[in-house]
Amino acid sequence: MRDFSEAQLERYSRHILLQDVGVEGQAKLMEARVLIVGAGGLGAPIGLYLAAAGIGKIGIVDGDTVDLSNLQRQVIHFEKDIDTPKVASAREKMLAINPEIEVVTYQKCLRADNIREIIRDYDFVVDGTDNFPTKFLVNDACVMEGIPFSHGGILRFDGQTMTVVPGKSPCYRCTFRQPPPPDAVPTCSQAGVLGAIAGMLGTIQAAEVLKFVTGVGDLLTGTLLTFDAKTMDFKKIKLHKQKNCPVCGEAPTITELYDEEQAVCNLHN
Amino acid sequence: MTKAKIQADALKDCRGVGCPMNLVYTKVELAKLQAGQILEIHLDDGAPINNVPGSAEKEGHRIIGKKQLPDGAWSVLIEKG
Amino acid sequence: MQISMNGEKRQVAGDSLTIAVLLEMEKVESPEMVSVQVNGDVIDRTLYQETDIGDGDEVDFLYFMGGGSRR
Ligand SMILES: [Zn+2]
Asked: Considering A2, A116, A232, C56, which has the largest number of Cβ atoms within 10 A of its Cβ?
C-alpha cells in the first residue's frame, strides 16, 4: 500500500473517512491523471476541486488569456491575472491549494492534429469548453482513444452534463450528431450566463471524476443531467447508444478527426 | 477482558489524537492488514472510545476486545473484516 | 392522446402529429439547437416533417448547450 505522510493523512482525512473511498480510494486519486479542456467557467471549479482532491497529474488546455469579463464566474482567476494566460493563472491557484500535485499546461487550442497525442497521457478528460467544434472534437478523439470523459455545457440559467465511457455508454454524438450551425448558437458571450451556474455544473463534473477514479457510485453514463437554476429543477434524461452514431455506431462514418471550422477558438482577445 | 490474551498483529497508539484523526489512523492501519488479522489501538477516554470502535464496526470490522489502561485510556482489539 | 415530454406526461389534441408540428407547438425558437429523441431513438433532423408521434410515445427535447470556457 502507498505510504501516506502525516500531512497527507490530515489533508485527505475527509476522503479517507468515507467508507467508500478510504485509504485505497485516496491512493487511486493520487495516481490518477486527468485532463481539463478549458480553464474557464467550468474549468475553474473543476481545477480547484481536482487539485484539492490530490489528483496526481492534472493537465489544463486553454489558449486564452484572462479578461475582466471572465471574473464574474471563472473563480480560479483573480484581478491580478488579467492578460496572463489562463492555464498559467489556473496552475498557480491549483498549486497554491496543493503543491504536491503535478499540473501540466497546454496553452493552445485543441485541433484534430494535436488532440490525440495530448489526451493519450490521461485516464479521464473533462470538457469545459464553450464551443461546439471543440466539444465534438473531444468526443470523437476520446471515443477513438477509448478514454472516458465528462461533457458539460452551461447557458443563461441552465446546465447539462453527461459522462461518456466509450464502448459502454452513448457518446455525445449519439445524441447531438453534429454541431449546430454557427449562426444559431448563442455562446456565453452573446447570451450571458449566471455566474454560479458554472460552479454548479463544474462541481458536478468534478464529482464525476472523483467517482470514476475511485469507482464509487454510478456515473452519469447514458444519462443527460440538466438543471434550470430559475426553478432549481434537476432532470435526468435517459440516453441510448445509437446504432447509426457516426462515430461509435455500427458503421462509423467518422474514422478520422477533422476540424469543424477554421477557427476552433480565436486567440485574439 | 477475561479471555486469554489475544495477540494483535499491529499496534497503533492514538492516545492524544482527537477525532476524527484517530479514526483516520485506525483505517490506515487496518488497510495494511489482511482480513482476520487483529489491530490493537489505544484511544483516549471520552469521545475517542465512544466513537472510533462503532465507526470501525460500521465499516465491517469486528471489535473483539476492549479494556481500560492504567492511565484511563482504552485498548481496543479490532479484527479486520 | 397522451405523450411524455422530457419525462412529464402531456395531453395533446388528435391521435398523431409530426415532430415538426410538436416543435412549433412547444414554441421552440431555434430547432437547430434541439436534438429530438423518440422512445430512445435520436431522430434525424431531415425527418422531422415525416416522423409521427403517437399516443404513449416518449419524446425528449435535448438542447445543445455550450458554454464554459471563453468569454
Ligand atoms: Zn455515439
From this structure: A116
In a domain, B70, yes or no: yes
User: In whole angstroms, what is the distance from residue A121 CA to residue A125 CA?
Assistant: 10
Per-residue pLDDT, B6: 81
The third-level CATH classification (topology) of the domain covering A32-238 is Rossmann fold (3.40.50)
| Total count of domains within chain C | 1
Output the pLDDT for position B38: 98
* Range A77-105 average pLDDT: 98
pTM of the model as a whole: 0.93
User: What pLDDT does C67 receive?
Assistant: 64
Q: Taking all residues of chain A, what is their mean pLDDT, rounded to a whole number?
A: 94
* C6, pLDDT greater than 50: yes
Q: Cβ separation of A9 and B28 shorter than 8 Å? A: yes
Say what the ipTM of the complex is: 0.90
Distance, CA of A190 to CA of A193 (rounded, Å): 9
Q: Judged by CB atoms within 8 Å, which residues 136-195 of A form the interface with C? A: 152-155, 158-160, 174-177, 180-181, 184-185, 187-189, 193
Q: State how many domains chain B has.
A: 1
List CB contacts (< 8 A) between C68 and chain A: 38, 40-43, 127-130, 152-154, 188, 198, 202
According to DSSP, the β-strands at B10-13 and B38-43 are parallel
Write out the residue range of the structural domain in which residue C23 sits: 2-63
Q: How far apart are CA B77 and CA B53, in angstroms?
A: 9
Number of Cβ pairs < 8 A linking chain A and chain C: 113
